[in-house]
Structure formats: C-alpha cells, structure tokens
Amino acid sequence: MEKIENLIPMAVFARVVETLSFTEAALTLGMSKSSVSRDISVLEKRIGAMLLKRTTRKIEITELGLSYYQHCFKILNELRAAERFIQEYYEEPTGTIKILAPVTFGKRYVLPTLNTYLKRNIMANVVLDLSDKEVDIKESQYDLSIVVSQSTPTHEYTKYLCTIQWGLYATPDFIARMRPILTPKDLPTHSYILFCGVARTISLPFRKEKQKINIDIHSRFRSNNSIALINMALSGFGIAYLPNYVARESVAEGKLVRILPNWQMDEYKVWLLTKARNTMTSGIKQFIDELQQLITSAEFKDPR
C-alpha cells in the first residue's frame, strides 16, 4: 500500500531544503516551526535514515537528502499547481461589464469577441450599447468605451487598438459607365453615398507621397448606418465613402471596386477607454485581451 501519509512531510522537507530554514519554511507553508520539525522527524523515521543535519547555526542536507529532494520537489510543485488552479478558478470573470461601442465597429469586432468571451466565462454578464454617441466615461455607467477618432482622446486610461483607413467604392457596372478615373480630379462631383454630416457637401482628402488634393463633392444619399450605405453602393446608386474594413468582404467577392486605390484618404484610430485603473476586473482585462487579439488578427489594410 502506498504511504499516502508521507506526502505532506515530503512537501515540507522540499521546502526546508529550498529555504535551508525551518522558520522560513514554516512561514511560507503557513505552519508552525514545531510542526515542520515534527514532519521532518516523522519522515526520517519512516525512511530509516537522516535527511538533514541540524546544528544550532545551520542546516546541512545529507547525500540521501539531496537525492530524495528531487522526488519531494515534484510533490511540492503539484501542491503549488493545485493552489494556482483553485486561485484561478475563483478569479474566473464574474459580474457585469457595460460596454459602449460604435455601431459598425461593434458589430464587426466587439460582438464576435463577446460571443467567445461569454461562452468561456459562464458566470460573466455583458451589457453592450451599440451607439455612435459620445460620453464622458468617468461620469457614465460604462466600464469600457470604444472611440473612433482622428485625434487621441484626453482621457487618462486610453489604449490604442488599431487604425482604420477610408476609401471610395462602387460597383463594376457603375464604374464602367463613368469616364476613366486616373486622378482625384477625374472624379465626378455628384452621386456620392456618405455617412451623415452637418452639411450636404464635403471635401474629400487625397494624399499620395507629397501630393495633397481636396475634391468637393455632393452626396445624394446619407445615413448613419454603414449597412444602409453599402447596400446603396451595391445597388449601383453611386460611389460610397466607407471604412475599408466595411467594404472588404464585398471587394473580395467582386461586388465592389476600390476607386483610386493608390491614393490615401481619411485615417481614423480606434481607442479603448476604461473608467479607471482600480476598476479593471479580471473579466474586463480578459475581454480587452481577446478583443486586441481579434483586431490584431484582422487585416486593416486597403482592400484592392
């Protein structure tokens, strides 16, 4: 029969060898010094040999003790692993995370991340507000806020996520009906599909090496929803000005074509704002890590 009663004394012996101190071993194991000494004596009695030479000034390990320690070390490591498992179990994300995210970016990246996160953490809950509204996160109900902006937010706890490029897209049939577009100056001034803005005209910026050109255009259709914009573009209604990641799938399928792909246009950055450092629960940290991994694996390049 296996000597199960030896397991704890073996772990105690390993800790004494590592610290070369009964007192320190007792402290790290949460035991009394007398209990440590008793366990070592019991172990030596069962083995029938001395493992440690004790003097008033120091502890020496016998030759047998050094060899035996290699086996006891494994026992101690298993105990540590068991402790880590219990600790991680109780640190499993729980509670509710309240997140504010832009509609389009939230649907494309936040929702898939949350799907994975909630499946993995059955005790966690999420309230997701998909909205393009702006809030002061410090004064809001949200734990996290995702912001798309050309400038860096002034909020103290801000994390950069990615950069989004914009471009012009239209169906192959629509492009075939236009005269050749070789430079921004060849673009028509009408039939544009744009996100909602304060004015009905807009100046589109173009950059290529040292060249910078702004072209004034007129939109016939505006919406605050990218699905509506891309659907209008796919219907052949006009030229849509869109974030490139929104158009990527339609470009890959040959339904839309990027116009003037060698010219750069608007560039926005995506930021993650957290309320404060002391409110970063394990659940929030895990969600942020998983969102960053998904974004990193995505291609935020111009679809050509």
From TrEMBL:
Gene Ontology MF annotations: DNA-binding transcription factor activity; sequence-specific DNA binding
Family indicated by similarity: Belongs to the LysR transcriptional regulatory family.
One GO BP annotation of this record: DNA-templated transcription
Phylogenetic classification of the source organism: Bacteria, Pseudomonadati, Pseudomonadota, Gammaproteobacteria, Enterobacterales
Native species: Tenebrionibacter intestinalis
Keywords: DNA-binding, Transcription, Transcription regulation
Pfam families assigned to the protein according to its UniProt record, in alphabetical order: HTH_1, LysR_substrate
Protein name per UniProt: LysR family transcriptional regulator
HTH lysR-type domain sequence ranges: 10-62
